[in-house]
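debug: dumping io for the single-chain case to check the tokenizer round-trip. Nothing else runs in this session.
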Amino acid sequence: MTDNILTSSLGEVEFSSNVRWYGTYVSYPQVYNCLLINNPNMIFLRHNHNDYPILGVDAYAHLVVRYLIGEIPIPTSEEMTSANQKQALYEMQFPYARYYMDSNYRHAWDNTTLVIPVSAVDSDCIDHDNDTAEIGEERALKSSEIWEALKGEYEKYDFRIIAHIMQQANYPLSIGTYEALNETGETLYDYGYQTYYDRAHVNPDDSSWRTFRDTQKAHKYRSLYTGTPAVCLPKRWIDINESKEDVLELIRLRQQQQQQDKNDETTTTTKFVGQQQQPIATTSQ
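debug: decoded output
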């Protein structure tokens, strides 16, 4: 296993004699890219991935169509089996995946006190709301923060798999390649992480009614195609119905947000013309 943030604490953990497929994005070793390996005429349009099931299914649907019309040759059963095995072995390099696949690794992780500095992970994984350390002070990561960091690392790999499927499928949206995500892919990953955070960190004082849909950070989510931001709901999600008043209020909020965005795009710059300083209003397009 390649070195990772747990290596210094766990060392080299011997593989279990009974490693499971569960925990990998392969999940079903008898299926490769929706094709049943021993009978590729049988197709299962399913989604192996976590954050964007509809997007994943749609990408796989495009790929399946290319198989069906002969634009992509169907691999041999040996090639499909080998590809699934190579992917699973690669995924065992991720501590988050190996935790579920390998009982030896899971036992070592659960029974070891992990001492890992906060500087070892991305700051997004840090529980800043409950962080008592001084700014710039080094401290050990909490177990929940370690879990979040390693889960996030593995989920970014998930997006790389989807990006690869999109490339094979000639999908109209590109989020990058198997090697790296592009800006759109990084944005999708960030949205996925933020939605998870909104689900997992509902204020206990509001938990009797607040859902992830009641987030106060809706403006952070924008359409990948138009850039149009989401708007916060006008009332509790559980209280919204399809009445004319609720629909009109949502439209009003959307228009208000769009106008605010338009105003934000207008900036005033100062240019020097000769010896005179003249403010010139410019609108960025």
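debug: round-trip ok. The longest strand covers residues 266-273.
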